[in-house]
Amino acid sequence: MYLQPDRVAVAFGNGDRPAFSTEDMLGGTLEEKCSAFDTFVSYCGTFEVEADRVVHHIEVSLFPNWVGANLTRLYGFEGDTLRLSTTPFLIQGEQQTAHLIWRRV
Fold it and tell me: What is the pTM of this model?
């Protein structure tokens, strides 16, 4: 897949995700599907940088409520390290934030 410079794609999953009991991509039990959804986050769209934040304009998302939304990420550089932080969002009834640390190799 080719990504243009102004596009973003995000995909995070739990590394210990159990396989479905079938090879059918649209198969699986309700429990397997719920587990897969609960252990994976993905979205893509365009982005723009504004001072100390980057705004992701969501076009496609595993979580349908984010489609058409703008997700703000705060960022900062420290040497070879990029830190990204979400603004608070709801997870299991509580406002939480997520933090990512990227190091240049």
Answer: 0.83
